[in-house]
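Person: Please comment on this record:
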Amino acid sequence: MSEQEAAAQTWRSLARRIVRKVNVGWWLQRLSPLLILGSLIIAAAILILRSQAHPYLGSPWLPAGGGAALLAIVLGSWLLARRQFLKEKDGLVRLEDRLRLRNALTTAAQGIGQWPEAPSDSRLAEAGWRMNWLRVLAPFAIAILAIAAAVLVPIATVEAARPPASEPLAWAQMDDWMELLDEEDLIDDQAIEEVKEKIEELRQQPENEWFSHSSLEATDTLRQTLQQQIQGLGAELAIAERDLNALQNFGDQIGEETKEKLLNEYDQALQNLALSGLPLNPELMNALKGIDPKQLSQGQMNGMSAEQLQQLREALQKAAQACSQCNNPGQNGEGLPKLCEGDALAAFLKQCQGPGRGGITRGPGEAPLFLGDKETNLK
């Protein structure tokens, strides 16, 4: 390589180095205000999202969007500063002015003159072209601090009002049943607590599993079982009250067969109440067991006054009505036995004394069927 070629390479390298410094300076000048403004906007957006506990805070799109905004600022500032960027020939002019070479570099680059001898120390040519790092780094520091403060500074979170979770309607319905039976003091307290615990176990499941197949199946099973128990309890109470009423008020007017039927029916009702999945209040159960229906049918009160028996019957009526209210009598064709009074009870007793409604022990006897040639007419 000749001396002129080496000198040309050195001068051009110095010119490009100066051009890079100047162009970076122009770019940083455009970038600084945009960077500060953009970082403040991003920080404000982060604070707003944090204060409202927005779900986007945990999304990867948030940092991606912030990074895209900063990249747009960098590219935008570069495009704005590009119109002022220097080229290599401008760098040679700056060197000529700095070193007072009187257009020697420009003419040499055009091939007219000779390249002057390159300086031994390149720092002499670059003197006066140094970065002010405080001014350069200050905008970046402000941007980083603003975004970091928005992310890390603790703030009071204003959460949006969260609607209450919607639970299966059967749970609230069973709660209402238990509250009603508890208010009427009809069921043993321990039995009520056991049912409430079963309902609460269903509520303890995660909310997203409340309407799962297994949860709804368990709910339906519990509801149907409870409904059947309440309906059976109400039916037995209604039967017991009806039989006591009949024996008390019509015991001397009915036949022995009807009376025996009422006595058996009353005993069966007591047995069913004792075996019920919802045990009756012990006081009420003991009061029912303390009555001798045979003596009652004979006009004897067995130590209980007529007023006390009337109060017991009213308690049975009220309890049966509470069970009927829980089960919506008449739904699906099912309901509780009617509580008969006055003429209605008399009609019921008269019906009991009639020919009956059929059965293996009732009716006229065997069907007139014959074996042989004799024709059997079933029409």
Summary: The chain has two domains: 3-152, 170-352. The CA atoms of residues 32 and 135 lie 9 Å apart.
